[in-house]
Amino acid sequence: MAITVPNVALNSMDYQRSLDDIARRKLVIFDFDGTLADTMPGITQTAHKVFTEIGMTEEEMGDIRRIVGPPFPFAFEIVYGMNRAQAEAVTKRYREIYAVEGTWPLFRGVHTLLSDLKQAGKLVAIASSKQQPLVMRGVADNHLEDILDACVGRIDEAESTKVQAIATVMNKLQVDPKDAVMVGDRMYDIDAARPNDIPCVGVLYGETTVKQELIDHEAAAIVDSVQELHRVLLGT
């Protein structure tokens, strides 16, 4: 399938100009869950265990994948209508289980993509809503330490942490917004990139959202595969 640039005609001059602008940027900031790592199974299975423990029915749980994207405990509030105390209690139990049973395998082709970005002289970083210790475990387990130039996870429960994480990465690496691009799988990544004045490439290969969500939130480009993402970020 063709790479999508929302509201721009395929193969037009504006289409190619938009892709060229992304490819020239020297800092690529990645979300972790659903973008680099296929964490959906581990997240949903852990949440299912917690929901079962507190007596929720399968009907009440619905599509648990909806919690992937927004930070915890906020995700449980907006998806399931929990009050803050309930959401915090669920989050606490979730983290107890996930710390032991969580998995974070990279999507096929991601390690090669990151290596190719580094070889091309790009700076590569992670900005995640996942707690910092868990992100660092994911980085270590996937042997990414020597590839990443920065990795910033969540250090508190503030709902704006993703915005701050992106800003922290750019400040740490001393990169201007005009030279940076975000890559993520949900509207939350696009919305966090916007206050930092950087575009966000949306990815669909993790099956965490639908294309229209990324279009509605004005992703700079949308890709269906890691191979397409490679083309967008490197221009090849």
Key terms:
236 residues; alpha/beta; Rossmann fold; DNA polymerase, domain 1; six-stranded parallel beta sheet; 11 helices; 46% helix; globular
- Number-wise, the strands total 6
SSE sequence, one letter per element: HEHHHHHEHEHEHEHEH
Q: What are the low-pLDDT stretches, counting only 5+ consecutive residues below 50?
A: none
Under CATH, the topology of the largest domain can be stated as Rossmann fold
Overall number of structural domains: 2
Q: What's the total helix number?
A: 11
Radius of gyration: 17 Å
| β-strand amount | 5-15%
CATH architectural name of the largest domain: 3-Layer(aba) Sandwich
Q: Determine and state the CATH class of the largest domain.
A: Alpha Beta
The H-level CATH homologous superfamily of the largest domain, spelled out, is: HAD superfamily/HAD-like
- Give me the side-by-side strand order of the main sheet: 3-2-1-4-5-6
**Distance between the ends:** 16 Å
Question: Approximately how much helix is present in the residues?
Answer: 40-55%
Give the helix/strand class: alpha/beta
Largest sheet: 6 strands, parallel
Mean pLDDT: 94
Shape: globular
Description:
With 236 residues, the protein is an alpha/beta fold. It has two domains: 12-38 and 105-234, 3-Layer(aba) Sandwich (Rossmann fold); 40-101, DNA polymerase, domain 1. The protein has helices at 13-23, 40-53, 58-61, 74-80, 84-101, 110-119, 132-141, 161-173, 187-193, 211-216, 226-234; strands at 27-30, 123-131, 150-154, 180-184, 200-203, 221-223. Strands 3-2-1-4-5-6 form a six-stranded parallel beta sheet, with helices on both faces. Helix 1 (13-23) packs across helix 11 and helix 2 packs across helix 5 (84-101). The two termini are 16 Å apart. The mean pLDDT is 94.
